[in-house]
Amino acid sequence: MFSYRHAFHAGNHADVLKHFITIQLLQYLNQKDTAYTYIDTHSGAGVYALDGTFASKNAEYDTGIGPLWERDDMPPQLKEYVDLIRAMNPSGKMRYYPGSPYIAEQVAREQDRLRLFELHPADAKLLADNFRKLEEHAAEQGIRPTVRGKRVMVTRSDGFQSLKALLPPPSRRALVLIDPPYEDKQDYKKVKDALAEALTRFPSGTYAVWYPLLQRMESRQFADKLKQLQCSEWLNVVLTTREPTPDGFGLHSSGMFILNPPYTLEPMLKQVMPYLVKALGVDSGARFTLESGTPTPVRGNGGTASPRNAAGQAPRSAGTAGPRSAAAQGPRAPAGQGPRGAGVRAGAGDTRPGAGREGLAAKARRPTPVAPRSEGATAGRTTGPRRPVNRQK
Ligand SMILES: C[S@@+](CC[C@H](N)C(=O)[O-])C[C@H]1O[C@@H](n2cnc3c(N)ncnc32)[C@H](O)[C@@H]1O
Question: Is residue 369 part of a domain?
Fold first, then answer.
């Protein structure tokens, strides 16, 4: 049950996609003063030491943050993400990589709330230790001395279960990140069920789900199942960095599925994804897909999944495929393959482990108070013509 450790995968191409988009979603929420809640149902350890034995075992960061580290030609939204990581590594050497909780901590503002869940005993402890150190550091610096204790709550518990009790959040504004290991195929169903219930409790929330593209049926059908959920709109973006290997070894492709995305997200991704494909593409299989739409009817249900959307329209722009040619950069040394064949980010049984008012860049310049211990952790907006879909206040 506790075989997955994210430290083995820290900074890989899937983390790049997930974390860069998470920053953009938080930045969107930062545009209004009203506080929001960031809920991370599967938090991991919070910070990872890239030179630790877990992360360096397969050096998966060579498929993700590695190729971006020295680039100076990035689109501004991607640069924001890389700059946040550069700020954690003031020596200039890429040693530490942030998990989603640390990223949210950096981008969210004083008034916002972070609710972080992690089930693995070791990673839950690392996560709690990391945030304790962040708090101590903030207190030393005179930053958020009083509210900080309530600002972040780290809980060792099942994120799927814990989510329910937090919805709807007091301010009716929230971003929920759901990022399970998917080692257990039940995770696919659990994500969908958790989202269906969450949308009933809090229909206007923004929900972001990371998922791997694998051979297993649950993975291949996953996005289509999420498209049936009764949100206002959904967006699905998939980054593929290479052709699948014949033995299915390693993760070649992953997606972010966002329910109730901000209207700014799709135009921004249209600009940034071609760059990511070029920067991270390994062979001619590298590409992206970007699609968005409104909930699709559930087959056999004679109509829509729920009466909330009787229209049940089909996707608006299904399959906006990124230019395959953009990826033809020539193969780079393939690195960071999963430790076993299953084609995964999470090989079964393997032990792999905003800018608020202050502005993200300024915030990110703060020293990283997180001392990586052992493996885990202590270790443009574009404006589109469409109306805002995100109805969060
Ligand atoms: C992919 S990692 C999370 C990475 C993190 N979101 C990030 O981006 O840095 C998945 C984490 O979920 C944890 N986990 C697995 N099942 C869980 C559950 N039911 N509830 C909470 N955490 C769980 C695992 O221990 C693992 O640390």
Answer: no
CB proximity list for 301: less than 8 A, separation 6 or greater: none
Domain CATH number, residue 169: 3.40.50.150
C-beta of 117 in contact with ligand 1 (< 6 A): yes
Compare 347 and 130 and report the one with higher pLDDT: 130
Q: Please give the full DSSP string across 211-249, using - where no structure is assigned.
A: EE--SSHHHHHHHHHHTTS-SS-EEEEEEE-SPPPTT--
- What is the number of other CB atoms lying within 10 angstroms of the CB of residue 385? 6
Ligand 1 mean position, distance from CA 314 (Å)? 32
Indicate the range of 55-59, 138-142, 153-157, 377-381 predicted with least confidence: 377-381
**Which tokens is 329 given?**
């950069």
Would you say the CB of residue 352 lies under 6 angstroms from ligand 1?
Answer: no
Question: For the chain, what is the domain count?
Answer: 1
The verdict on residue 387 lying in a domain is no
What is the number of the ligand 1 atom nearest to the C-alpha of 345? 1
Query: Is 64 a pocket residue for ligand 1 (Cβ < 6 Å)?
Result: no
Q: Which domain holds residue 38?
A: 6-364
State which of 13, 43, 189, 254 you would mutate to test the pocket of ligand 1, scoring each by most atoms of that ligand within 8 A of its C-beta: 43
Contact 133, 101 (CB under 8 A): no
Question: How much is the mean pLDDT over the chain?
Answer: 80
| pLDDT bracket for residue 188 (50, 70, 90) | very high
Assigned domain for 181 exists: yes
pLDDT recorded at residue 375:
54
CB 99 near ligand 1, within 6 Å: yes
Whole-Å CA distances, 252 to 180, 219, 236, 269: 18, 13, 17, 19
Active-site residue list: 179
In a domain, 384, yes or no: no
Dump pLDDT digits (tens) for 277-335: 999 999 999 999 999 999 998 876 544 443 333 233 334 443 333 333 333 223 333 33
